[in-house]
Design a protein that fits this description.
Layout lengths: L2 H9 L6 H7 L4 H19 L2 E5 L1 E4 L28 H13 L4 E4 L11 H12 L4 E4 L2 H11 L3 H10 L2 E3 L10 H7 L6 H13 L4 E7 L5 H18 L2 E8 L6 H4 L12 H15 L10 H12 L6 E4 L6 H5 L9 H10 L3 E5 L5 E4 L19 H6 L10
Parallel strand pairs: 1-8, 1-9, 2-3, 3-4, 4-5, 6-7
Antiparallel strand pairs: 9-10
C-alpha cells in the first residue's frame, strides 16, 4: 500500500483500511499537503464551517493512584507527600464556581485511590446532580468504571446503570492510549486491557450513556497500531453510534517517568508539528462518516497549533477547562484554562464561525459576531495552580487504613 493509492481511495470516498491508514501516516512533502487538503475538504463536506467549543471545568479530584503508568506524571502513591484528595464539599464548590462562570459541564477524572468504597463514583455524581441538576456530569474514565465495579462486586453494566440513575451524562473515552496490548504492556502494565476498555465503552452505549473517544500517540506505537486504534473506534461506532467525538492527544514526554528514568529504550520524545497534523487528517478520513466531530486539543499543543488542526480535519476547539492537572503535570506549557472569548478569537482567525455547544454537541449559541454584552470576568489565578494544590496540607491524602 502506497501513500498515493491510499489518498486516491480516500478521495473516492471509500472506507480506508488500517493498512491504508498506516500508509497515510507516512505522508510527507506534496503528499502531506494532499492529505491535509483532503481531510479539510471532507470536514467541510460533513460539518461545514462552524467550530464548536464547550464551557466546562475539569476537576481532577485526586492524584493518588494504585497504578504506575510510565507516561503519567500526575499520579502519586498513597504515602507520597504530594498526594492530595479533594473532599466532596470542595468539589461542589468548584462546580458552583464553574456554573457562575457559565459552565454547562464538569469533567471529573482522577487517579485510582486505594481503599475507597465501591460506591464512591456513584455517590459523588449523585452529590453534584443534587445540588446542580442543570450541570452535565461528564465523568469517570473506563479505568475508573472498571475499578468502581470491581470494588462494588457488580457487573460493569449494573455499575453504569447506577451511575446513569443518579445523573451521569457521559463518559470520557480516556485511558485508551493506544488500544493494543503490546503497547499497553510497555507504557502502562496493569492498566485496563484493550478488551476491557472496549467492553466498558460498548456497555455504556448499550445503557444509553454516550462517550467520547481518544488516542494518546507519539511514544512507542507503530503507524499501523495508530491506524488499528482508529479502525477499532470506527467499528465500535458502527455498532453502537454512541461516540460523540474523537480527541487526539499527543504524548508529552518532558515529565513522563518512563522518559525521565529511561525505562523504555527507543521511546520517541518529540511529537512534531507534522505528526500532529497527520494524526488529525488521517483520523478525519478513517473515521468518516461515522465519527463527525474531531477535537483540537489546545491544552496539549497550544492554541496556535490547535488552530492549524482546524485546517487538517478538526471541527471542535474543546473546552475552557478552568483547571487542568494531568497535562499540566506532564509538562504541557499551554496553561490550564482558555477564556471563551479567546477561543472565539482563535476560531475566527482560522476563518471559521464559533459555536458554543453542549457536551453532546447540541448548539447553544452561534457567534456570527462578538457579543455586545459583557461576559463573566475570568481571573486565571482564582482557579489555583497544580503545584499549589499538591502542596496544600488542607487537601493532603489521608491513608484510610
Amino acid at each position: 500500500m502506497t501513500v498515493e493509492s491510499a489518498l486516491d481511495k480516500a478521495l473516492e470516498g471509500r472506507e480506508l483500511s488500517a493498512q491504508d491508514g498506516e500508509a497515510l501516516f507516512g505522508a510527507e512533502g506534496d503528499n502531506l499537503r494532499r492529505l491535509l487538503d483532503a481531510a479539510d475538504e471532507r470536514r467541510r463536506q460533513r460539518v461545514g464551517e462552524r467550530v464548536a467549543y464547550v464551557i466546562n471545568r475539569n476537576v481532577n479530584f485526586t492524584n493518588v493512584c494504585v497504578k504506575r503508568c510510565g507516561f503519567c506524571a500526575f499520579s502519586r502513591g498513597h504515602r507520597a507527600e504530594q498526594g492530595y484528595f479533594l473532599p466532596t464539599e470542595e468539589i461542589l464548590r468548584r462546580v458552583r464556581e464553574a456554573r457562575e462562570l457559565g459552565a454547562t459541564e464538569v469533567c471529573i477524572q482522577a487517579g485510582l485511590p486505594p481503599r475507597i468504597p465501591g460506591s464512591f463514583y456513584v455517590d459523588l455524581c449523585a452529590a453534584i446532580k443534587r445540588e446542580f441538576p442543570e450541570i452535565h456530569v461528564h465523568a469517570f474514565s473506563p479505568e475508573e468504571i472498571l475499578y468502581g465495579a470491581t470494588l462494588s462486586n457488580r457487573s460493569i453494566e449494573d455499575y453504569l446503570m447506577a451511575l446513569k440513575d443518579v445523573g451521569l451524562g457521559s463518559l470520557p473515552g480516556t485511558s485508551a492510549e493506544i488500544l493494543d496490548d503490546r503497547v499497553r504492556e510497555i507504557i502502562s502494565p496493569g492498566r485496563i486491557s484493550t478488551r476491557d476498555w472496549n467492553t466498558v465503552i460498548r456497555t455504556a452505549h448499550k445503557v444509553g450513556i454516550p462517550t467520547t473517544s481518544t488516542i494518546m500517540y507519539g511514544h512507542v506505537e507503530t503507524a499501523l497500531e495508530r491506524a488499528q486504534h482508529l479502525e477499532l473506534l470506527r467499528n465500535i461506532q458502527k455498532d453502537t453510534g454512541g461516540i460523540t467525538e474523537f480527541v487526539p492527544l499527543s504524548f508529552i514526554a518532558s515529565e513522563a517517568p518512563m522518559v525521565k528514568k529511561s525505562l523504555v529504550p527507543g521511546i520517541r520524545t518529540n511529537v512534531t508539528h507534522a505528526d500532529v497534523l497527520r494524526m488529525y487528517a488521517v483520523a478525519r478520513l478513517m473515521l468518516d462518516p461515522w465519527i463527525l466531530n474531531i477535537q483540537a486539543a489546545w491544552v496539549k499543543q497550544g492554541p496556535s497549533l490547535a488552530q492549524e488542526c482546524l485546517q487538517a480535519g478538526a471541527n471542535d476547539f474543546g473546552g475552557t477547562l478552568m483547571n487542568e492537572s494531568i497535562s499540566t503535570s506532564a509538562g504541557a506549557p499551554h496553561g490550564q484554562f482558555l477564556h471563551p472569548g479567546e477561543m472565539r478569537k482563535w476560531i475566527r482567525a482560522a476563518g471559521r464561525i464559533p459555536v458554543q455547544r453542549s457536551t453532546t454537541y447540541k448548539t447553544l449559541r452561534v457567534f456570527e459576531r462578538e457579543p455586545a454584552e459583557p461576559e463573566p470576568s475570568w481571573d486565571g489565578d482564582r482557579f489555583g495552580s497544580y503545584s499549589a494544590l499538591i502542596a496544600s496540607p488542607e487537601f493532603r491524602f489521608r491513608d484510610r487504613t
